[in-house]
Amino acid sequence: VSAFRLGLVNPNTNTGHTEAMAAVAREVLPSDAEIIARTAPRGPDSIESSADQAIAAAVVAELVRDDPGLDGYLIACFGDPGIDAARELTEAPVVGVAEAAYVAASFVGRRFAVVTTLARSVPEIEDGIHARGLAPRCVGVLPLGIPVNEQGAEFPDTTDAMVAASRRAVGELGAETIVLACGAMTKVAQAIQERVGVPVCDGVAFGALLAWSLGRAELGTSKAGSFAWPEKIAYVGMLPLSPRP
Amino acid sequence: VSAFRLGLVNPNTNTGHTEAMAAVAREVLPSDAEIIARTAPRGPDSIESSADQAIAAAVVAELVRDDPGLDGYLIACFGDPGIDAARELTEAPVVGVAEAAYVAASFVGRRFAVVTTLARSVPEIEDGIHARGLAPRCVGVLPLGIPVNEQGAEFPDTTDAMVAASRRAVGELGAETIVLACGAMTKVAQAIQERVGVPVCDGVAFGALLAWSLGRAELGTSKAGSFAWPEKIAYVGMLPLSPRP
Amino acid sequence: VSAFRLGLVNPNTNTGHTEAMAAVAREVLPSDAEIIARTAPRGPDSIESSADQAIAAAVVAELVRDDPGLDGYLIACFGDPGIDAARELTEAPVVGVAEAAYVAASFVGRRFAVVTTLARSVPEIEDGIHARGLAPRCVGVLPLGIPVNEQGAEFPDTTDAMVAASRRAVGELGAETIVLACGAMTKVAQAIQERVGVPVCDGVAFGALLAWSLGRAELGTSKAGSFAWPEKIAYVGMLPLSPRP
Amino acid sequence: VSAFRLGLVNPNTNTGHTEAMAAVAREVLPSDAEIIARTAPRGPDSIESSADQAIAAAVVAELVRDDPGLDGYLIACFGDPGIDAARELTEAPVVGVAEAAYVAASFVGRRFAVVTTLARSVPEIEDGIHARGLAPRCVGVLPLGIPVNEQGAEFPDTTDAMVAASRRAVGELGAETIVLACGAMTKVAQAIQERVGVPVCDGVAFGALLAWSLGRAELGTSKAGSFAWPEKIAYVGMLPLSPRP
Amino acid sequence: VSAFRLGLVNPNTNTGHTEAMAAVAREVLPSDAEIIARTAPRGPDSIESSADQAIAAAVVAELVRDDPGLDGYLIACFGDPGIDAARELTEAPVVGVAEAAYVAASFVGRRFAVVTTLARSVPEIEDGIHARGLAPRCVGVLPLGIPVNEQGAEFPDTTDAMVAASRRAVGELGAETIVLACGAMTKVAQAIQERVGVPVCDGVAFGALLAWSLGRAELGTSKAGSFAWPEKIAYVGMLPLSPRP
Amino acid sequence: VSAFRLGLVNPNTNTGHTEAMAAVAREVLPSDAEIIARTAPRGPDSIESSADQAIAAAVVAELVRDDPGLDGYLIACFGDPGIDAARELTEAPVVGVAEAAYVAASFVGRRFAVVTTLARSVPEIEDGIHARGLAPRCVGVLPLGIPVNEQGAEFPDTTDAMVAASRRAVGELGAETIVLACGAMTKVAQAIQERVGVPVCDGVAFGALLAWSLGRAELGTSKAGSFAWPEKIAYVGMLPLSPRP
Questions:
Q1: Is the Cβ pair F230, E52 closer than 8 Å?
Q2: Parallel/antiparallel/unpaired status of strands C72-75 and C5-10
Q3: Given CB 3.0 to 4.6 Å as the disulfide criterion, which of A235, E26, E51, E118 pairs with F85?
Q4: Could you write out the DSSP letters of every residue in D119-160?
Q5: Distance from C-alpha of C224 to C-alpha of B111, rounded to nearest angstrom
Q6: Strand partners, F34
Q7: How many CB atoms lie within 10 A of CB F145?
Q8: In chain D, what residues touch E132 (CB-CB under 8 Å)?
Q9: Where are the beta strands (DSSP E) in chain C?
Q10: Are F92 and F27 in contact (CB under 8 A)?
C-alpha cells in the first residue's frame, strides 16, 4: 500500500495549534502516513465568533484550492469552516473535526454531551447537532467560559474545568460520552478520559483516522451533485476558486 | 419618523445585479427610506458553488464591519452568505433574501416550491429549508439548469423556463406559492406571478420591507448570546472583525 | 401608491383590547395606511382555553366573510384563532400575531423564549412552535400565572413579572429575544425591552407591518390549494361561509 | 360492569351521516354500550374547508358543554374539529376519528396511505400527520376529487375510485394499510378491505371501540394542564364555555 | 360474535408476572374473550438490559410461530421485544404494551411522563418515544432506581416511589398523564392513579383492550410489505421461522 | 503499537459469507491487525425478515458474551442485529455495517441512496435512517427484488441490477453516493463504484476500519448508562447474558 498524505488544515493562524494537532494525528496514524500541515496565512489567531469563522472558511477554501491533490484532508477546527467549499475543490475525502467527534461518540455511547469554550457558541453547536440529526442523542452543550486561547495542556485550570463539566454531564445529565468542541482541547482528551471514566471524543485524532480510513476504503468526495467542481465564474481581485482540472 | 437607511449588500462583484436589486427595493420602500447599496469589492461575479459562497461570506462580513451603523441590512444573495457574521457586527436588524422569501411564502400559502438555477444547489437549498423547520411545507426544489448570469428580465427564455417550472410545481406537486432562489430573478417576479397565477415570493423586495419593518418596530439584532459583538482576537494580515464599540 | 386598509380583527369581545391594539398598529404603520378594527360581536371577553378559542375562531371566520375586500388582515390574538378559515375567505394577505412574533424573533436572535399568561397554555404554545419547525430555537415557554385580563400597562405588577421572567429566560435559559404571547401585552413591549436589554417581539406591531409589507410586495393569499375559496356547502341556521365571488 | 354511554358527535348538520356512523359504532360495541348520537344544530351540511371546520368546532364545543356527563365521546369527522375544546369540557375520554384511524393503522402495518375527498385538504391532512409524528410512516395522501356528499355506500363509483386509489397506494407507494379520511366513508370500509386485501382503517368503528376501551381501563381526560376545565370568562351573546362544576 | 382468543405473551420466564398480567387483562376484557397466556420457556427472569431483550425477542418470535392462529396477541413487556417478528408470523393483530400505553396517554392528555425501573433504560425509552414521533409530548422519563423484580403490589415502597415520581412529573415537569414502563407495574396502576389524580396509563390492561378492539374492527396485521410472512430460509440448529402457510 | 484483534461476527450461519467478509476486512486493515471471524452456530442461513433478525440478534449477543475480550467488534449484517446487546457485553468498541456505511456516505456526499435486496425491507431501512437523523440526506431506498443468497460476485446479473439501480438513483433521484444494504454485496462494491462513477459505501470494509480507528483512538464502549454491563438476572435454560467481570 502506498503512503497516505493527509492535509491537516488549521483554519486559524496559530502555528502552535497546528503543531499540536499534527502531533496528535501523527501519533494515531500508521507510520507510513504523511501529514502535511497547513496554517491559515491570514485571519484570526483563534476562532470564537461567526465573524472569525467566515474569514477562516474563505482561507480554508483557498488552501485546498492551492493543493488539491493530497489523499485526504482534515479541517482542524470544531466549526468545520469552509468544509463544503473544500469538498468541491478536491476529489479526496474531507473530514471535519466536529463531524469526526460526533461519529466517534455515536459508536461508543447512546448519549453524549459537548464541552465547549464560550457560551456564545452554544446555539451554533446545538444547531449543528440538530442539522446532523443528532439532537435526540445530545444531553447538553456545556460552556466552560474559557476562550480557545486558554485551552490545552499548558492550562491545567482549564483541564480541571473540563473534568468538572464532564462529570456534571455524566452524573446529572446522563451523558455516556463527552465530545470536545475545540481543536485546542485535543492534547488533554486522554487525561480527561482517564479522570472522568467515560470515552472522551476528540475530532483531531479520530478525524485523522477517518480520513485515512476513507482513503483505505477508496472512498473520495463524490463529484456528482453538491460537491462537483465549482462552476467557471469570473473572479475579481483574487485567484478564482474554480480549478476544474 | 426619521429616515431609514438600508444597507443592501450584494455579496457578488456584479454591479449590474446590485443596481437591479436596489431599484426593486427602492420601489417598495416608503419614500423617506434611503438605500445604501454595496457591491463586493472582490470575489466571484456570481455565486453558484459553496466555494463561491465561502469567499462571498467573508466579504459580506468585511463590508458590514466597515459600515455597521446603518438602520438595517439586506444580504442580497439567496445563500445568505455571511449573515451570522453580519449579525455579530451590527446592532441593526439583518435580513437575508432566502429567509425573507420563505417568510413571505409561509404567510400566503401552506405549500411552496423553490425555483433555482443549477441542480447542484438543490441539496443545499433543501438543507436550508430543513434547518429552518420548513421541510413539511416544501413540495420541491426545481432547478432550471440555467446559471445566475442568465437570470433576469434580459433573458426572456429564462423567464419562460421559470413559468414552466412554476406551473409544474403548482399542477403536479401541489405548490401554492413559488419561492425564487436567486437575487437576479427579482426583476421578473411580478411577470411570473401574473402568468402563473399564484404568489411568487422574491426575497429582495420583501426582504427590504422586512428590514424596514423591523426598524419601525424598534427591533435590532440581539447582543445577548449568539450575535454578541465578536471577541477580541488577534488577526494576521487583515483588519480584525472585532469592532466592539 | 394607494392607501392600505388593514383589517385588525380582535377575536375576543373586549373593545378595550381592540382599541389598544389598533393604537399600536396605528403608530407603526405609514401614515396613509388605514386601520379598520373589528371586535368579536359574541363569545369570550378574553381567550384562555381551547374552548374559548373554538368560539373565537368561528367568529373570526364570520367577520372576514362579512368584509373580505380589505388589503390585509391581522388576527390579533396569540392563538391565531380562525386564521386558516380567514385565509380561505379573502384574497388579501392574512397575518396572525403569533406567526408575526415568531418571525420577528427569528430575525433578531438565534434563541427565543416565550412569556405567556397561564400555565395551561404552555403545551399548546409549544405544539405551535413545533408545528412551525421552530422547536430547536425556543429555549422555553414561561407562564406568568396571570390571566389575559390582568395584562397591559394598567397592571404594573404584571409588567414587573414579565421583566423577571424575561431576565430569567435570558440569564438562565440562554434566550436572546423574548416573544410576548398575548395581544394584551403589546402596550408594554417597549418598556420590557428597555428594562431587559434584548429585543421583545410583539406580534401586534410587527404583524401590522408584515401585513402592510405583503401588500406592498403585491403578495396575497394563494387561491391554489389549501386556501382556495370554500366549497359551496349548504348551511343550516346561519349565513354560509362560502362566498366564492 | 355498568353500561357505557358513548356520545357520538357529528360536527356537521347531516342527520343521515349521523345515523350511518351510529349504526357502525353500534355494530362493533358490546351490546350493553349505549350510543347517544348528536348532530350539529347549525353550520355546514358537510365539512370540506377550514372555514366549515371553524364553525363545526364551535358547535362541537357547545354540544359537549351541554351534555358533559357521558362516559366517552367520539368526534365523528376526520378533521377532529373542536376536539381540544371538547376535552376541556368533560372528564370522560374524547376520541377523534382521525386519531383513531391513525392508531389502528400504526398497529397493523408499518406504512399507511390516506384516501381523502378533495385535493384541497391534502396539505392539512399532511400537517396533521406531521404534528402526530407519523410523517415517516405515511407514504402519501391521495385525493379522490369527490366531495363528502358523494361518499358512502349509495355512491358505487366512489367506492370504485377508493379501491383504485388504494391499490395504487399499495402497489406503487408501498402502503401496507389504508386510512379513510372521511366519516362518510365508514360504511364502505369493509368492502374496500375485501377488494384491496390490506387493512382499511376507519376511525368511526375503531374510534368507538377506543372510547369504550379507555372507559374500561378507567382512563378519562386529565384535568391537569392543557385540558383543565375552561377558565371563568365573561361571554357576550351566548352561554359561556366554562362549566367548571 | 364469536369469542376472541388473546395470546398474552410474557417475554420473560417469570410465571408470576404472566399470571398477574393475565388477571389484569381478564378483568377488563368482555366476558366472552379468552386469554391464552404464554411464558417464555427460556431466557431471563426479568428484562432490564438490551442483552436480556435480545434473548426475549427471539423467544417471543418462537412462541408466536408455534401458535399463530389466535385472534390477537399482546407482547407483555414494555420493550415490546420481538414485536416486528411476531407481526410477520401471524395474520392476527399484535399489540405491544409500550405502544398501548403511549396510545392511551395520547388520548387523555397533551403531555405525558414515563416512570421506569432503572436509569440505564432511560435513553432506550426516549429513543422509542422519538421513533414513534411522540418526543414533543413527553416531558420526561423518570427512573425509580428499582429493578423489575421489586415492582408490583407486594412491594409497597415501590408504589410510594412511583407516586412520588409521578407527583414530581405533574408538579414540576407539566405531565398531564403518567405512563408506566414495566409490565410488572400493572397491578398498582389504579392505586397510583387514585393517589396522584391524573390518568395512569398501563399498557397491559389497555393493550389487551386494543387487541380486542382491532379484532372487533376486523383489522389484522397487513401481509403486504413489512409484515409479510418470513421468506423461506434454511435454518441451522432450530425450527425455522418461516411458516408461510 | 500492539496488534488489534477484530471480532467479525456474522449473524447468519453461512460460512461462505463469513469468509468473504473477513477477506474484505483483511484487505483494508493494517497488516498487524488480526481478524477473528465468528459465524452464527444456529439460526437462518441468510437474514431477510424481522423474524430472521430476532433469532440472529440473540445469537450475536451470545457470541460476544462468549468472547468479550477482543479489541473491537464488527456486526456484519446490515440490520446490525443484536448490536445494543453486544455493546453491553464488552468494553471494546462495537461497529455495525449499516452504521459504518451511513457514516462513510455522510463524509463523501450530501445525498445518498440505499440499494437493498427485497422490497419488504425498505420500510425498516427507512426507519433506521430516520432514527439516525439521516432522513433528509437519503433520496431513496431501492430494492433489487433479489434475495441475500443471490448477492455477491458469483451472481453477475445481480451486479448488473445493482449498477442499474445505482445509476437511476444518481440520474433521477440526485444520489451523490450509494450505500449497499447487505453484507453479501461487499465483494462487488468496488466494481459498482467503477461502473457508476460515484462512491459506493460498503459497511464491511469501512466498518472494519472504523473499529480499528476507534481502537487506535483509545475509544471503547462507554460503561456509563445504556451500555453498562447487563444486570445480574436469573436465566432459565441457558447461560445468562450478564458477565459483569
A1: yes
A2: parallel
A3: E51
A4: GGGHHHHHHHHHHTT-GGGEEEEEE-S--GGG-STT-HHHHH
A5: 10
A6: F5
A7: 11
A8: 133
A9: 5-10, 34-39, 43-44, 72-75, 94-96, 112-116, 138-143, 177-180, 200-201, 235-236
A10: no
Question: Which stretches does DSSP call E strand in chain B?
Answer: 5-10, 34-39, 43-44, 72-75, 94-96, 112-116, 138-143, 177-180, 200-201, 235-236
pLDDT tens by residue, A189-245: 999 999 999 999 999 999 999 999 999 999 999 999 999 999 999 999 999 997 665
Which residue type does D4 have? F
Would the CB atoms of F85 and E45 count as touching at under 8 Å?
no
C-alpha cell at C151: 395584562
Q: Do B104 and C217 touch (CB under 8 A)?
A: yes
**Spatial distance between the Cα atoms of C180 and D135, rounded to a whole number of angstroms:** 31
Nine cell digits for residue D131: 404534528
- DSSP 3-state helix, strand, coil percentages of chain F (rounded to 5)? 45, 15, 35
Residues of chain F in contact with residue E225, where contact means CB-CB under 8 angstroms, are 119-120, 122-123
User: Is F190 an interface residue toward A (CB < 8 Å)?
Assistant: yes
Residue C37: CB atoms within 10 Å: 19
Which one of A106, A110, A177 makes the best mutation probe of the E interface by having the most chain E beta carbons within 10 Å? A110
Q: Is any Cβ of chain E less than 8 angstroms from the Cβ of D88?
A: no
Strand, coil or helix: what is D40? Answer: coil
Edge-to-edge strands, sheet with A72-75: A34-39, A5-10, A72-75, A94-96
Count of CB pairs separated by less than 8 Å, D with E: 139
Whether F85 and E50 lie within 8 Å, measured CB to CB: yes
Provide the ipTM.
0.96
Confirm or reject contact between B49 and chain A (CB < 8 A): yes
Contact criterion met (CB < 8 Å) for C119 and E174? yes
Beta-bridge partner residues of D113: D140, D178
pLDDT tens series, chain F, 245 aa: 468 999 999 999 999 999 999 999 999 999 989 999 999 999 999 999 999 999 999 999 999 999 999 999 999 999 999 999 999 999 999 999 999 999 999 999 999 999 999 999 999 999 999 999 999 999 999 999 998 888 878 899 999 999 999 999 999 999 999 999 988 888 899 999 999 999 999 999 999 999 999 999 999 999 999 999 999 999 999 999 976 65
CA dist B161 → A225, B209, E219 (Å): 21, 28, 49
Spatial strand order in the sheet of D112-116: D138-143, D112-116, D177-180, D200-201
Q: What is the DSSP string of C13-49?
A: S-HHHHHHHHHHHHHHS-TT-EEEEEE-SSEESS--S
Q: With contact defined as beta carbons under 8 Å apart, do C109 and C198 qualify?
A: yes
Chain C residue at shortest CA distance from D81:
C54
Q: Cell for B230?
A: 465578536
β-bridge mates for residue A43, sequence order: B236
CA distance C230 to chain D (A): 5
Q: What is the CA radius of gyration of chain D?
A: 17
E135 touches chain F (CB under 8 A): no
Determine which of E106, E108, E110, E170 to mutate to test the interface with C (most C C-beta atoms within 10 Å).
Answer: E110
A32 touches chain F (CB under 8 A): no
B neighbour chains, 3+ CB pairs within 8 Å: A, C, D, F
Chain A contact partners (≥3 CB pairs within 8 A): B, C, E, F
Whether A174 sits inside 8 A of E124 (CB atoms) is no
Copy the grid coordinates of residue B51: 466555494
Instruction: Select from C88, D116, D119 the least CA-distant residue to B171.
Output: D119
Can you tell me whether residue C154 is helix, strand or coil?
coil
Return the residue matching grid coordinates 472583525. Answer: B241
